[in-house]
Amino acid sequence: MVKFDQALPTYEAPEETGPDSKLRETFPLQLCQMRTRFHIHNQFCDAEWIRQYSTAALHLNPVDMDARGLADGDTVEAFNDRGSFGCPVVGDESVRPGTARVFEGEWSKFMASGNIQNVTNPGISDRGRALLNGPVIPYNDTLVEVKKA
């Protein structure tokens, strides 16, 4: 990684979610795709016995829900200039204000509409293209806005 000035890891500003991003004016929430104990990436998403405990939902801090007039269980649309997806919203105080979380790998057939990847930042850095096992898509470097569907 020497040619990318990363012989030792150094800070790189996020492409989309940095504090000075102009996109934050339109899409103020950072979307994070979090892991779940109920499935591995997208494996086991359709296991009936698991779905009774875990369903597709967007987790927002109650402060962000109040600002948008949302209540637990409302179907919402998360969107940006790339696309959108819809699912129920859940108030979650463990989610930092200004952040939206969704379990990674949720299948579109379990969403009210669309797919999480419709909004995901597809950017790949030159450094990322040079990685031995291929580039990593910046899943958590994604901005969205959320509204009641």
Description:
It is a single chain. The protein is mostly beta strands and 149 residues long. Helices cover 9% and strands 26% of the residues. It contains three helices and seven strands, in the order βαβαββββαβ. It has a six-stranded mixed beta barrel with strand order 1-5-2-4-3-7. Strand 3 (75-80) and strand 4 (83-91) form a beta hairpin. The longest helix is centred in the middle third of the chain and has 6 residues, at 62-67. The radius of gyration is 16 Å and the shape is globular. It starts with 28 loop residues before the first strand and ends with a strand. The mean pLDDT is 87.
- Cα(first) to Cα(last) distance is 45 Å
Radius of gyration: 16 Å
Q: Helical region count?
A: 3
Q: How much helical structure, as a percent, in the residues?
A: under 10%
Order of helices and strands: EHEHEEEEHE
Coarse structural class: mainly beta
Q: Are there runs of 5+ residues with pLDDT below 50, and where?
A: none
The main sheet orders its strands as 1-5-2-4-3-7
Count of strand segments: 7
Strand content: 25-35%
